[in-house]
Amino acid sequence: MTAINSFPDYPARIIIDSCSEVALQSDHHNISLTRVPFKIYIDDDEFVDQDLNRSELIDRMHLSKNKVRTACPSPQAFFDVMDPNAVNFVVTISSKLSSSYNSACLAKSMAEEKGFGDRVYIFDSLSAVSGEDLTALYIIETLKRGFKPNDLFHIVRDYITHMSTYFVLNSFENLVKNGRIKHSVALVGKLLKINPIMKGVNGEIELKEKCRGHKKALFSLAKIISNEVESPQTKNLAITHVNAPETALKLKAAVEKTETPFKSILIFESGGLGTVYADQGGIVIAF
């Protein structure tokens, strides 16, 4: 598996759903990026996850006593942004958390009917938020290294399988409303000021560690990152926050204090879907 000589010698389009907050600007004329939004439903109102006011979204979620519902992009929505004259790389939130991946696969079938399905590659990020961000960025990096599409597909899929995703919650409200945890468990957690560190495992969410207090949770997460990362000098660490830039900077400082030599530490602000998952003050990281 070798890189081709020119970078890239074909137009490439990266398509992400709105669980990613990667900037849509590319520094190369042959690479374009576009985002396909989810929809969020609170009571009787619909929000398109595109340039949302996050503070307003959080307020509306907390005022509602009902479940916050989300709807992934339709196959047609993915198909409509595919470029028949480019190689299309589609990245979605974990298929264990949403049907977005299935929609993208159906869009590929639609592209096959139109004669360009061989130029569509679908990636299940097995993650969300920061993990999806890193996957999209790694596709760009691999494109810049000049790999052919089929080789790139296998390289990026291998990258995904070795990626780790963690998050720290500051609120249990949405998890209770969406039936993820019992109200009694959330009440005990709130009274004891417990902030759980959760981990993505095979695309699903599992409890990694319970910490009393947000500050301790961030410190523990920094230690977990330092202990688990392999070859950090070759990797990026992505930190995504929900309306909590100071918390993201504190975690960045805590990681730097461990002297773990990441290639770079990137900070993103969560979009609407990430806000629904992690809620006010939540932090999602991936490496």
UniProtKB/TrEMBL annotation:
Keywords: Lipid-binding. It comes from the Bacteria. InterPro entries: DegV, DegV_C, DegV_domain_contain. GO terms for molecular function: lipid binding. The keyword RNA-binding does not apply. Signal peptide: none annotated. The keyword Ribosomal protein does not apply. This is DegV family EDD domain-containing protein.
